[in-house]
């Protein structure tokens, strides 16, 4: 274990002492994020327990990606704070892995899959230090892990959508983190890749790692994830899937968009039959 | 990774040797320079068409003339640096930033001239002028970033605004300079259009130093710049100083721009930075090779351009270099091996041809399959097939079919018997069975797994198994067997039992 567990967070005098245990992978207090004075996230309070696969679910514009970006200091916080294993993210970067949305980069970039995966090691290599043979080997292992080692030398635009997503996952794996943020890894991937991602998630969970995944497909939430955060500019509900992922709560999250709810109806059928707590 | 350091060292040694070469061949006698000037004056006074003589040509190509050697080597060196730096600028999607930067250099040149003259200097000291150019250039870039970050105006509009305002300011300042009584400002306007021929040894040394620094920084920061240009969010998530990295990149760009001003001028310098890079992209998918190639192409156009310009004195070097670079770009665009137009077209033709061939073989195989079924044969026999029947099978025109058959015959897949019938060769028959089986498996796959977008699967693989995995293929074969089609002929041609798959 790389984390010293049980050590309380050092808090400067005069500030309120956090109510959550200091070693939870992710603790968000009163987080508010605004773009051009328009709030995107309001007063988010979240404690994510260790070793869970967490789905972040909500309609378009609910601030799902923004939540992740705020945790990674990629967007400025209007207020609140985010603690990763009891410390601010800036001091815990080596414990965090990040899979951005696939559309966020230019896949025409003249670079091979292996080189992209090696970027996952850049944090450990550090600024101005060269990439060594051992780093390339580690990157190759990560590619093997996601099952596309044979495509290592391919330029990234010559990969299919699912393969590109796997490259991004391999890059995150190479980061060897404890807490993973994944922004829509299931978007527009083929069935084989979807299965590969799910088994990868379970593998990470078995290693005691925590994954926060922005997820769009309501039909598979209860199948893939054991924790859910329902988000629509604020946290509607957060907790174990069977408690939180209910018809009522979804209605609350998605507001009037009942058409979407009907789509999810089939998937929810089983769950709503279970008692709603 | 010691190879990395060796490469650095090798490059440095290369540059140093190059400079020793230039410096050693510096003229020891004033005669040399006078000769050069005489030559230039003569050509200028000659108003008719004047083609260079063979000796002149040889003198330029083999760099016999001191001035030519200086200009050609300097522009080549500059080319290597601008190729490197321009690559990162292009990949950062800030190509036009170079344009804004170069235009923003003009006021700095004018202002520094005024300052130097008022301090009693000649006003034409190149380092001073270039320092002024880089200051206003960076201020211009800062303005672009400021406009973009504080308002909702996008990059392109912000660059347009900054570019025109600074250029306007520069022209105004130069106008003021002309009216200054104390000093002669002649020659300042050469920064707008460039004047490579006026280069002297000190300028060349300055260029050499700047190029050396740029190249070394690019090599040392290869990893950082690559990540910055590829994935900004990830760079920031790693905690790397994004703004500092951007600043370093833009400083490199401004350094190359500013020292290039003298030879190509601020209007054309953008072509220095972008054209060779865009050209190099057509040849390779690898960033390292692209960087080298961009430097090489740019060096080549610098050499060719300034040589041509030296031979025909009324053609300014900057313009010719840009034209040569564009020519190289066009050649790359068509003939580039990685993504050139012809390459892509050829790949498409090949695919079309392959698909056509497979469709023909499958049509023939299916006809044979049908006749075997009608005659209740236990095996599909490679018998001759009437062309008319093949024609009826698909929507080919007679001409298309004739071409397909001709091509297949040429490839040895089949033989034309009497003009009306065709007979598959042994290898053709095997290929036909394979193509049919693959096609059916694919169709079944797409039907049974209809939620999968077909473009996400690598269809070009030779065997379905390579793409789908053997378990899935077995399942698909089951599906096919249930629907009564022959699939496992090729898997096991002799253990094929009648009645099992031929319903």
Can you put this structure into words, describing what you see?
- The complex is a heterodimer of chains A (277) and B (503).
- By secondary structure, chain A is α/β, with parallel strands linked by helices.
- Chain A has a single domain (50-72, 90-252, 266-276), classed as Rossmann fold, CATH 3.40.50.
- Helix content of chain A is 35%, strand content 21%.
- Chain A has 10 helices and 10 strands.
- In chain A, the strands form 2 sheets. Chain A has a 6-stranded mixed sheet with strand order 6-7-8-3-9-10, sandwiched between helices. Chain A has a 4-stranded antiparallel sheet with strand order 2-1-4-5, covered by helices on one side.
- In chain A, α4 packs across α5 and α9 runs antiparallel to α10 (258-273).
- The longest helix of chain B has 34 residues, at 341-374.
- In chain B, α4 packs parallel to α9 (201-220), α6 (126-150) packs across α12 and α14 (287-311) packs across α15 (317-335).
- Chain B contains 21 helices and 3 strands.
- Chain B folds into 2 domains: 2-339, Orthogonal Bundle (ABC transporter involved in vitamin B12 uptake, BtuC); 344-500, Winged helix-like DNA-binding domain superfamily/Winged helix DNA-binding domain (Arc Repressor Mutant, subunit A, Orthogonal Bundle), CATH 1.10.10.
- Chain B has 503 residues and is mainly alpha-helical.
- A 3-stranded antiparallel sheet of chain B has the order 1-3-2.
- Classes of the chains: A alpha/beta (277), B mainly alpha (503).
- Chain A binds chain B through residues 36, 69, 72-74, 90, 93, 96, 98, 100, 104-106, 109-112, 115-116, 119, 122-123, 125, 127-128, 130-133, 155, 157-158, 160-162, 188-192, and chain B through 1, 4, 91, 93, 152, 220-221, 223-224, 226-227, 229-231, 233-234, 236-240, 281, 284-287, 290, 449, 451-453, 455-458, 469.
């Amino acid at each position: 274990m790389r984390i010293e567990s049980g050590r309380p967070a050092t808090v400067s005098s005069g500030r309120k002492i956090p109510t959550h245990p200091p070693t939870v992978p992710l603790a968000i207090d009163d987080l508010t994020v605004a773009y051009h004075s328009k709030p995107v996230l309001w007063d988010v309070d979240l404690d994510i327990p260790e070793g869970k696969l967490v789905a972040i679910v909500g309609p378009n514009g609910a601030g799902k990606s923004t939540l992740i970006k705020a945790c990674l200091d990629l967007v400025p916080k209007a207020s609140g704070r985010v603690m990763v294993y009891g410390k601010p993210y800036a001091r815990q970067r080596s414990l965090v892995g990040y899979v951005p949305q696939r559309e966020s980069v230019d896949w025409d970039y003249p670079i091979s899959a292996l080189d992209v995966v090696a970027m996952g090691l850049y944090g450990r290599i550090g600024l101005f230090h060269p990439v060594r043979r051992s780093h390339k080997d580690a990157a190759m292992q990560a590619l093997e892990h996601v099952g596309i080692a044979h495509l290592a030398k391919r330029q990234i635009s010559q990969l299919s959508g699912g393969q590109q997503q796997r490259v991004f996952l391999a890059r995150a794996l190479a980061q060897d983190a404890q807490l993973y943020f994944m922004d829509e890894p299931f978007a527009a991937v083929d069935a084989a890749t979807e299965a590969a991602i799910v088994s990868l998630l379970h593998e990470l969970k078995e290693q005691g790692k925590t994954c926060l995944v922005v997820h769009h497909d309501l039909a598979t939430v209860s199948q893939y994830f054991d924790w859910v955060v329902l988000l629509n500019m604020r946290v509607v509900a957060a907790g174990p899937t069977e408690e939180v992922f209910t018809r009522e709560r979804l209605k609350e999250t998605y507001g009037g968009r009942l058409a979407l709810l009907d789509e999810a109806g089939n998937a929810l059928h089983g769950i709503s039959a279970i008692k709603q707590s | 990774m010691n190879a990395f350091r060796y490469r650095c060292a090798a490059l440095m040694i290369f540059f140093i040797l190059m400079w020793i070469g230039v410096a050693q061949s510096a003229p020891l006698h004033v005669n040399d320079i006078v000769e050069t000037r005489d030559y230039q004056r003569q050509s200028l006074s000659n108003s008719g068409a004047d083609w260079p003589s063979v000796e002149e040509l040889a003198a330029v190509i083999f760099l016999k003339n001191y001035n030519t050697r200086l200009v050609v080597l300097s522009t080549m060196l500059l080319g290597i640096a601008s190729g490197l730096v321009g690559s990162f600028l292009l990949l950062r999607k800030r190509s036009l930033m170079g344009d804004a930067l170069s235009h923003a250099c003009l006021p700095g040149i004018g202002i520094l001239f005024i300052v130097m003259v008022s301090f009693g200097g000649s006003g034409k000291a190149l380092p001073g002028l270039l320092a002024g150019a880089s200051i206003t250039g960076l201020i211009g870039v800062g303005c672009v970033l400021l406009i973009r970050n504080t308002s909702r105006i996008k990059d392109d509009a912000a660059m347009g605004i900054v570019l025109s305002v600074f250029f306007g300011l520069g022209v105004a300042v130069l106008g003021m300079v002309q009216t200054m009584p104390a000093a002669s400002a002649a020659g300042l306007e050469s920064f707008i259009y460039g004047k490579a021929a006026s280069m002297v040894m000190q300028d060349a040394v300055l260029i050499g130093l700047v190029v050396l620094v740029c190249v070394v920084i690019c090599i040392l920061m290869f990893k950082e710049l690559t990540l910055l240009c590829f994935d900004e969010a990830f760079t920031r998530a790693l905690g790397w100083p994004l703004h500092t990295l951007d600043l370093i990149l833009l400083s490199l760009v401004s350094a190359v721009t500013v020292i290039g001003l003298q030879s190509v001028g601020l209007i054309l310098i953008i072509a220095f930075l972008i054209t060779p890079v865009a050209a190099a992209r057509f040849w390779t998918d690898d960033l390292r090779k692209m960087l080298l190639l961009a430097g090489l192409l740019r060096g080549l156009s610098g050499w060719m351009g300034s040589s041509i310009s030296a031979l025909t004195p009324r053609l300014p070097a900057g313009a010719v270099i840009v034209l040569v670079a564009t020519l190289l770009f066009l050649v790359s665009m068509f003939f580039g091996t990685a993504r050139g137009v012809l390459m892509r077209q050829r790949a498409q033709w090949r695919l079309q041809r392959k698909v056509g061939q497979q469709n023909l073989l499958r049509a023939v195989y299916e006809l044979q399959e049908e006749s075997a079924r009608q005659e209740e044969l236990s095996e599909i026999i490679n018998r001759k097939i009437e062309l008319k029947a093949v024609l009826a099978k698909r929507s080919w025109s007679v001409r298309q079919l004739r071409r397909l058959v001709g091509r297949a015959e040429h490839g040895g897949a089949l033989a034309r018997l009497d003009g009306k019938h065709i007979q598959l060769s042994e290898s053709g028959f095997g290929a036909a069975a394979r193509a049919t089986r693959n096609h059916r498996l694919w169709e079944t796959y797409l039907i049974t797994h209809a939620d999968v977008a077909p473009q996400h699967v690598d269809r070009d693989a030779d065997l379905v198994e390579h793409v789908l995995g053997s378990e899935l293929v077995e399942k698909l074969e089951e599906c096919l067997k249930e629907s009564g089609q022959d699939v496992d002929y090729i898997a096991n041609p002799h253990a094929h039992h009648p009645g099992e798959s031929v319903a």
